[in-house]
TrEMBL record:
Region: Disordered, residue numbers: 27-51
Coiled-coil regions listed in the entry: 72-99
Protein name, UniProt field: Mediator of RNA polymerase II transcription subunit 9
Annotated function: Component of the Mediator complex, a coactivator involved in the regulated transcription of nearly all RNA polymerase II-dependent genes. Mediator functions as a bridge to convey information from gene-specific regulatory proteins to the basal RNA polymerase II transcription machinery. Mediator is recruited to promoters by direct interactions with regulatory proteins and serves as a scaffold for the assembly of a functional preinitiation complex with RNA polymerase II and the general transcription factors.
Entry's Gene Ontology molecular function annotations: transcription coregulator activity
One of the GO BP terms on file: regulation of transcription by RNA polymerase II
Description of how the protein assembles with itself and partners: Component of the Mediator complex.
Family classification: Belongs to the Mediator complex subunit 9 family.
């Protein structure tokens, strides 16, 4: 199985988005006493024009995760196919339990 960390993209995405260097708007300039709720994690601010290249590692991680998911067994089966198999297995279990009770 792939490691769970492979699918945990939210921290990296949050860190990347928090680095975007937002230019001050008229609303933020009008009320300088109000502090921003966004705190940088100590990383360098990211110019919005650099975002496409900065997001490449996250996109690569997502692609790798998708490739790993495709290798898992039964990923090509539909939910309906899986439900049918579950129903068949439950029927088989009931029959086996009946046989065991009859043997007692």
């Amino acid at each position: 199985l792939p490691p769970p960390q492979l699918f945990d993209i939210l921290p990296a995405l949050h860190e990347l988005l928090s680095r975007i260097d937002h230019a001050p708007t008229a609303a933020t300039l009008a009320d300088p006493g109000e502090e921003s709720e966004i705190a940088y994690t100590g990383s360098q601010p990211l110019d919005p024009k650099d975002l496409p290249s900065a997001v490449l590692p996250i996109k690569a991680q997502i692609r790798k995760g998708l490739r790993e998911l495709e290798t898992l067994p039964d990923m090509d089966r539909s939910v309906e196919e899986q439900r049918e198999e579950i129903a068949e297995l439950e029927t088989k279990i009931r029959r086996q339990e009946e046989v065991l009770r009859a043997m007692e």
